[in-house]
Amino acid sequence: MIQEKGSISIHTENIFPIIKKFLYSDHEIFLRELVSNAVDAIQKAKRLASLGQFNGEIGAPLVDVKVDKAAKTITISDNGIGMTAEEIKKYINQIAFSGAEEFMEKFKEAKDASEIIGRFGLGFYSAFMVADRVEIQTLSFQPGATPAKWSCDGSTEFEISEGSRTTRGTDVILYVNDENQDFLESHRIESILNKYAKFLPVPVQFGTKTESEPDGEDEEGKPKYKSVEVPNIINTSVPIWTKAPSELKDEDYLNFYRELYPMSEDPLFWIHLNVDYPFHLTGVLYFPKIKNDIELQRNKIKLYSRQVFITDEVKDIVPEFLMLLHGVIDSPDIPLNVSRSFLQSDGNVKKINTYITKKVADKLAELFKNDRKGYEEKWNDIGVFVKYGAISEPKFWERAKDFVLLVNTKKAHYTLNEYKDYVAPAQTDKDDNLVYLYTPNAEKQDGYIQAANRKGYDVLLMDSPLDNHFISHLERDLEKTQIKRVDADVLEKLIDKGETISSNLSEEQTQEIKEVFEKAITKPGMDITVETLSAEAMPVTVTMDEFMRRMKDMAAMGGGMSFYGSLPDKYKVAINANHPLATKILAETNADARQALAQQAFDLALLAQGMLTGAELTSFVERSVKMI
């Protein structure tokens, strides 16, 4: 028997078309909203009981989700506080928002449910994204309450009548429309629950599952098992981030990581977040083992609000350089301007961002101080975070200067101050600048590295994807320090000591040998010079200017240097006037033989740089065979 009919108190009759049309792309969140409402109702019952305002039996809390494919219904049931008819009118029938015209104009182009739900209290009404009709059966916890039923067919008209529920709580029944029949598939509903409800604080059941349990022993005394149907509880209601670190062991953290990322290697270490003031924040952040493709490691942090999954887009909360971390952050104080989905950059978000940065810096400093050997062993992975932070986060860099490490080609690790003291005696130039040498590939540039080592110079290994940017950052930060690639010039010019080396060639001979090489070298972009180097140096060296190479490397990484990336490559070809080969070439009277020697020396220099390929490499090999 219908007790009352009426109109839902909203300012426009277009609200349901808006919900159905504009919110279509994110329509799976209806289940998150309704299950979250059910959890809230149960927690309110617990709260009222703890305050002495509810004296009944609380019972085992449970949210039960059912799908009836034949009836085309989805039912979300809870044993929470329930509602009276008056409360239905208050909480369901009055959608609290004003300015309907502004609302319509603002969201007429909206494509994402997250832009609307929640901003105007539409969480419950998200049910109409998938349902033609929604029914509520509810019984309040209040003594003497009678069951109530509410139904609505997607218009602004509703009906309230006597309900049929006999126990405290609420059933929300969705009569799924023809366009959304896929939500009647059990696997679809279960996947959504696994996504959003995995760690809700109240058990969420979806059907049953088959498990084995002991069933005595067989005739040989071996244990027997039988299959039994048990409730299929979707979630872990007390995840580790809700516990105190003192309650947890390393294996607990590792097991949780494996649950979140079942296909990943175990993490290096983790940080447990737990702060109550000036905001509430809990969570666990893991340092993963970084692979070569940094982009694949990003967006692995999951944001929750009171254990409800919100998003894995956390770039406003977590500093950019820590987007490579994995794990969970949970905070009820992160403002969600729409539904529980989009973040506002307000004061709390900035405070949380600063807090996480500080916690990470503290953890790294602690590891370095307490176990330097272990820290060095992990540096290949840790270094990516530290260098990324150095480049992008000034406050983090101020802390990180104490635990950032430089690694040389001999695999020795140094702090910034240690390395400065180590190389200063040998690598200070005539202008009192400290010069650091580095290589991006120790194997390919072994000849250059060995030549530098023979002069008493050390060479750093800078082979991570971020090192081009990190090198530039170090040069800006370190006083009177230059950083040069070991093949950026001849050694005597890489670290100019102001020493003068006399040439074995006269001016005429210098010009003559330059002309020989100019005729022999037909490769474009080669600037040929004759240098007075030590006799032990290579007869010919091919180098690219440090600045130009760095700009081109950054352009290749998409570092905003596209102009340099489009410029043709230019190299400097340095002919060593003091190498015996120079004298040998000048002594050769046959022009073709001169050319061949010059070409061979040039090709050797290209080979040392990995620049000799294809037909040029074949010609070099054939020429070398003839010269043997």
UniProtKB/TrEMBL annotation:
InterPro entries: HATPase_C_sf, HATPase_dom, Heat_shock_protein_90_CS, HSP90_C, Hsp90_fam, Hsp90_N, Ribosomal_Su5_D2-typ_SF
Entry keywords, A to Z: ATP-binding, Chaperone, Nucleotide-binding
Pfam family, one: HSP90
Sequence ranges assigned to domain Histidine kinase/HSP90-like ATPase in this UniProt record: 26-180
Family membership: Belongs to the heat shock protein 90 family.
PANTHER family for the chain: HEAT SHOCK PROTEIN 90 FAMILY MEMBER (PTHR11528)
Protein name per the record: Molecular chaperone HtpG
